[in-house]
Amino acid sequence: MKRATIGLPIIFFFASAVCLFAGILDGLLVAPAEQHMGQVQRIMYIHVPTAWTAMLVLTWAFLCAVMFLFRASWRWDSRLEAALEVSVLLCFLLCVQGSIWAKPTWGVWWDWDPRLTTTAVLLMAFVGIVALRHFLADAAQRATWSAVATIIAYVDVPIVYFSVKWWNSLHQQPSSASTISRDFLIPLMLNFAGMLFLVIGLMTIRGRTALLRLEDEMLPPPLPAAIPTEVMA
Question: Which CATH number belongs to the domain containing residue 159 in this structure?
Answer without folding.
Answer: 1.20.120
